[in-house]
Amino acid sequence: MRIGIVGATGYGGAELLRLLNNHPEAKNIQLYTSTKEGVHIEESYPHVATIYDTSLKPFNPEVVGEDSDLVFMATPPGVSAQHTQEIASHGTQVIDLSGDLRITDPTIYETWYKRPAAQIETINQAVYGLSEWNREAIQSARIISNPGCYPTAALLGLAPLIHNDAIQQHSIIIDAKTGTSGAGRSATMMTHFSEMNENFKIYQVNTHKHTPEIEQQLHQWNNESGAITFQPHLVPMIRGIMATMYVQLKKPLTSEQLFSLYHQAYDGKPFVRIRKENNYPATKEVYGSNYCDIGLSYDERTGRVTVVSVIDNMVKGAAGQAIQNMNLMNGWDESMGLNLVPVYP
Amino acid sequence: MRIGIVGATGYGGAELLRLLNNHPEAKNIQLYTSTKEGVHIEESYPHVATIYDTSLKPFNPEVVGEDSDLVFMATPPGVSAQHTQEIASHGTQVIDLSGDLRITDPTIYETWYKRPAAQIETINQAVYGLSEWNREAIQSARIISNPGCYPTAALLGLAPLIHNDAIQQHSIIIDAKTGTSGAGRSATMMTHFSEMNENFKIYQVNTHKHTPEIEQQLHQWNNESGAITFQPHLVPMIRGIMATMYVQLKKPLTSEQLFSLYHQAYDGKPFVRIRKENNYPATKEVYGSNYCDIGLSYDERTGRVTVVSVIDNMVKGAAGQAIQNMNLMNGWDESMGLNLVPVYP
Amino acid sequence: MRIGIVGATGYGGAELLRLLNNHPEAKNIQLYTSTKEGVHIEESYPHVATIYDTSLKPFNPEVVGEDSDLVFMATPPGVSAQHTQEIASHGTQVIDLSGDLRITDPTIYETWYKRPAAQIETINQAVYGLSEWNREAIQSARIISNPGCYPTAALLGLAPLIHNDAIQQHSIIIDAKTGTSGAGRSATMMTHFSEMNENFKIYQVNTHKHTPEIEQQLHQWNNESGAITFQPHLVPMIRGIMATMYVQLKKPLTSEQLFSLYHQAYDGKPFVRIRKENNYPATKEVYGSNYCDIGLSYDERTGRVTVVSVIDNMVKGAAGQAIQNMNLMNGWDESMGLNLVPVYP
Amino acid sequence: MRIGIVGATGYGGAELLRLLNNHPEAKNIQLYTSTKEGVHIEESYPHVATIYDTSLKPFNPEVVGEDSDLVFMATPPGVSAQHTQEIASHGTQVIDLSGDLRITDPTIYETWYKRPAAQIETINQAVYGLSEWNREAIQSARIISNPGCYPTAALLGLAPLIHNDAIQQHSIIIDAKTGTSGAGRSATMMTHFSEMNENFKIYQVNTHKHTPEIEQQLHQWNNESGAITFQPHLVPMIRGIMATMYVQLKKPLTSEQLFSLYHQAYDGKPFVRIRKENNYPATKEVYGSNYCDIGLSYDERTGRVTVVSVIDNMVKGAAGQAIQNMNLMNGWDESMGLNLVPVYP
């Protein structure tokens, strides 16, 4: 299979390079860029020296579409919105890791993203690639909108409760924490080492773009679901997301019932691991892997369930789930190339 | 003033040494220990070499009481419960940094702490040392129970709303994050560098001992207030606490009204700084100092207020607030010895 | 192939689990312990849950020898010295990751290790497993003494110069820096997060056990080589070693000659990557992989060469090189199971 | 005393703000900038909110000279070279924290700095402010060239040996490690958190600008001293420098003699602390303070002395030593405002 990666010099691109090297069907990989044409990939990423002996090609959507069977768009905002149709017109599968195609309602997109939405035809063709919950649509899709990192952690954690209509309306609070790699490779004051180490920050309070993405999917699953509170925080680490989620139940559940909902929901889904009672995941326990680990607690004193969901934002939150979707789209084993043990310690 | 520090080899003791060196009234300091008698303090803490040229004395409560005008108990659980009365019987002021005397109801103490409570007479004499809110009682106290680190951050953040009866019952959720120094100097797997770096953990879900401490104070302020949800997390950093708090309002407030409540509450209180609208504190911005910085946001979509409160757990959450209380007890300027600019970066 | 891992709950054991999961010949793996018999591996290491569904067996050398074709000893000092012979007597291959069998002269061992040496017969049978330089002996060995992490980085960096007799006698200085994982999983004050973060330490000045291991190999390569200066430092990171090495040349070399020596030495050796001129490796560029990256600089002002050699101490410095040796011993492709792209960022 | 800080929004400026707040003679402080005129300092540095209630003034050298008794230049390269004379012409004391005036030979400056040197008159008036070793000249100086961070650590560590002519010519090797704050506040790829955490880097191999600064001072102390090897490394931490230095002795010294040299050299110098034998400093042990801690080891096997010198690069390596020099210039107690206990942990 001929694979193209557009935006190969960002962290999403680098992680695709790492994971695809382990994938038996991905032997012919081309790298595209809009900013570093002709540069050898090892100049951007010395860690792939001798592994990928290739230079970056200029991004021309027509050429990319023609020369690829599948394209990963690991691009800044706006690129996918503009070029996905043309690439896909060559019969090429497109998996978009940017957020351009995630929000189905252009008005909501423009409110939260503060930029024009993609054309409605493109949006409508894009299938939301939350692999565990949208499997059938993914299998027959040509264009995948790969979920955001926070939404992946949050939605996998909330899905069993929301599907079972167990949550009180308006009670969902998501306190999310991420490492810095989600902010990308561009150097900013926010993620400058001297500003970030020995520091813990909250950011984009009540305004993060992943809020409507989570709300949209929850609402699709259960149309009672409305506005949520979602607050992201920045942790002095590179990889990992933890979403600590607080929901009020409609009626009490025993711990057994609670765990049973989750085991049923994720039975046969290899990348979601439910922790035993009184056991909660830490982000490092999924480091470098495609797992989402979930811990659960029901507090009788308050009638509240706390759901703890962790992923590696670069893997299950980006490149890993993209490859999982590639596998589903092509009828391959869902976990092909993704059987990586987390890097620990 | 003759000052004794019991438990000088722990982090609480070390931080007292750092801060008291800057305090004009603290010129005669004795260090006591139960484990390292006779050892020179610089063997435990090379960083104080040439500054404190003194050895650790054995802890004998009678001697300590007799030889000190004020004693800081920076001790493991149980020591203060047992010895505070005897020390205080010499007319000595006692400031207890352990949690032994914080919970007024022995049953609640024993439920959460899983150990016997102190004698009720000792508990009753101890004044809860939340400096900004309990000033008068502190000024006339002989025994201070210094607040926990999490409760300090949480209570300073919630106080204006709870005093104004603005919060819906049962709606308080505190998602708290701390650096590792709060866990003390004893090496444990939990805080082993290889386990903790590049990692983010939740711990003691629904069972942390600071939960009843926060509930007790909130209830005292407003007897409608009941059980809260409090989940602590461990951040790969040494110092700093952020409490992100979610409350549902009884009735909507404008942003102006919300900020006004806080400004009124903390007017003239030098260690609480309220951030401007759309501006939120990071933990490093109070690093090494006695400040508590608070940011606020009201979200119209959900009717929920998010309060962000940060402290340095070693200072405002322990040794700094203890010295602030010492100042209040002795009629000195509240901020004597505590005018430290945060260490940044 | 039936593989046994003795000491599976340490970090060396955990890294073997991670890497062997990727190895096509390693499908039957048994885990042995002296301290946690009967415990499921996921209780020690939640990150391998669902991947390794197995419990720890008691370590009995006879059983281990009988039930395994190859055994990795990832054990504390003394265990291999005592039990390797018995395990090997069953025809089992043994790869020892502890330092028990590295020093051929028992007197030197006892001077530096402060403990009794293994029996001389065992020592004599053990082949030093520096894969790139001892390939033939490894291929026919039954017992491998896997090199220490520092010696691996240092020796790979110095070998081309020492083989070409280019270094002035007594001029070798190795300033080495490591992450904390090399210190193992046991919690200690030295590697307590609060003591280690935002800190940089030197330790075991002039007394580190890896000193005679490096000297022994250098001397074997070039009998002019004598005592070296080796100073290890601890970096606030988990994985990675950098050895910065300073040597005085016997006679000047042009940069071209210098690089040419290294390219010749490592031609066809897939895990050693020589950087281009004016380009130096950082530890993260080999993170999680079996690579050793080497940078070089000759300074005309001083006649000194600086060699910069980086590895991941858990991989090329331990489990990865052990697997590389397993591959060589069994006639498999040297890089089988080790084609991992470094984890970046 | 009226104090001006030019370049107040950089880290050097921020550290001056922190330390001067503790200084009894520094009550009138003006902040100057070339880039953020009119901005309130708390917008750049929220951590000083309520402590410094002042806005940044435009940098006009004439006005600054007229309105200040002493000026700290915490400016990028070139500013001091251009404006120091004019400021000083008003009778104003100038302490320059940039490197503009450190190298007395313009040719050497231009070779290493790759930019034009300052006018020779300015250079000649500037006194090198290594407080412990240049006290008399500093006391009568009008312009101080404050030493670089690395040279401070290195020179304090080497001075006793070089003054006693104990070191073999051409044998000095300085392997130096620094936190990221020395690189300043501008966001760069090099110090981007995702690139820097869990990473250890070498940089500017054989080309760092501090090399000639160290050589110049060593040569001034002992004209046998020539070219040195100096290699800087970047540690994933914010503050702290360790210089590990290797020198060959002319003739053997007993440990007693070695330590005696250092104790004599630093007797009565409050900020240099010599460690006991077999005890070595870690960078955190001077964190946030003006101390330089030094450890020593003589290795009989190699005839080599290892000197370990640590400082906080922001304090003794920049703002702290600048204030120490201010104190000396004005006849105040050398340690006025600098009696800070290191922040530990």
From TrEMBL, chains A, B, C, D:
The keyword tRNA processing does not apply. One of its GO terms (molecular function) is N-acetyl-gamma-glutamyl-phosphate reductase activity. Its EC number is 1.2.1.38. The active site is at 149. It catalyses: N-acetyl-L-glutamate 5-semialdehyde + phosphate + NADP(+) = N-acetyl-L-glutamyl 5-phosphate + NADPH + H(+). Keywords: Amino-acid biosynthesis, Arginine biosynthesis, Cytoplasm, NADP, Oxidoreductase. It is an enzyme of class 1 (oxidoreductase). Pathway: Amino-acid biosynthesis; L-arginine biosynthesis; N(2)-acetyl-L-ornithine from L-glutamate: step 3/4. InterPro entries: AGPR, AGPR_AS, AGPR_dimerisation_dom, AGPR_type-1, NAD(P)-bd_dom_sf, Semialdehyde_DH_NAD-bd. Residues 2-141 form the Semialdehyde dehydrogenase NAD-binding domain. It is found in: Cytoplasm. PROSITE patterns: ARGC (PS01224). It holds the Pfam family Semialdhyde_dhC_1. Belongs to the NAGSA dehydrogenase family. Type 1 subfamily. Catalyzes the NADPH-dependent reduction of N-acetyl-5-glutamyl phosphate to yield N-acetyl-L-glutamate 5-semialdehyde. This is N-acetyl-gamma-glutamyl-phosphate reductase.
